[in-house]
Amino acid sequence: MVFKKKANHEEIVLSNKTRRVTDEEIDFVLQKLTNETRSSSEITRTQNTVDIQLD
């Protein structure tokens, strides 16, 4: 997991080499790090990574 925070932008990248990242894992990370939800963020999924953009 990588968490980047700038003055007006936050980005979280989740990765799992053996399986897809689940919605529950995304929700957990958003809640613990940002108090945001999936509906208030822009999520891009690839095979083994999830990129979450928060403005």
TrEMBL record:
Domain of life: Bacteria
InterPro entries referenced in this protein's UniProt entry, alphabetically: DUF1827, LMG18311-like_sf
UniProt-recorded name of the protein: Uncharacterized protein
Organism: Liquorilactobacillus satsumensis DSM 16230 = JCM 12392
